[in-house]
Amino acid sequence: MRADLSPVIAATAQWLTRAFPATGGALAAALCEVQARQAVTVAAWLRYPKETDVALLELTGPGGSARLDWVAGADAAPAGDDEEAHAWRTWVDEVVASWAAVLLADPELAARAVAALAGSGHGTGSPAGFRRLVAPDAGDRSAAALLRHPDLLAPVAELHHHQLLARLNPGRTLIA
User: Fold this and answer.
1) CB 138: neighbour CB atoms within 10 A?
2) Fewer beta carbons within 10 Å, N or C terminal of the chain?
3) Helix or strand or coil: residue 63?
4) What's the mean pLDDT in 92-109?
5) What 8-state DSSP symbol labels residue 148?
6) CA proximity to 72, closest of 171, 153, 149
7) Nearest to 58 by CA among 2, 125, 107
8) Closest listed residue to residue 41, CA positions, set 127, 125, 120, 100
């Protein structure tokens, strides 16, 4: 696929790891970042399945992190800080962050999401490439305790949870 989602994936994963930081040092931070990046990658590939979708994203922009910062109570750029240092926040995609939060809180749904990528232009749909997302071990869970905590993720996950379910279950009516 020619179109590039890497700025959105990088910024959204960074937002998640700042809003729900790792606990336990450098190794934990690296494991937490890998899990966030895997979740965001799957969410972005589901959200933007075609090259035209990605091209439209490049034209319109992803929207930024302002609403997510407010909903999650995340620390946005402090007043008086260098605005250029926080320019990455404009590349955060709210829907992708919400879908990634859902996937991080529910490994079974994450496995379904990875499987849904099979045959897409983005990925193989192989769970092996997303092992830390779909089958986290004790070390992964410990490192990303905040990032995978369903109660902490709920405000972000609930923003667009229904849209993710609709994407994974096309043609199926959701009952509230």
Assistant:
1) 7
2) C
3) strand
4) 97
5) T
6) 153
7) 2
8) 100
In tens, the pLDDT along 120-146 reads 766 655 667 899 999 999 999 999 999
- Nearest alpha-carbon partner for 72 in 90, 97, 40, 91: 97
Cβ atoms within 10 Å, residue 62: 23
Torsion of Cα atoms, 123 then 126 then 130 then 135, to 10°: 160
Residue pLDDT, tens place only, 45-100: 999 999 999 999 999 999 999 999 999 987 665 555 667 778 999 999 999 999 99
The conformation of residue 81, written as its DSSP 8-state character, comes to S
Q: How far apart are the first and last CA of the chain?
A: 36
pTM of the model: 0.90
More confident call, 8 vs 82: 8
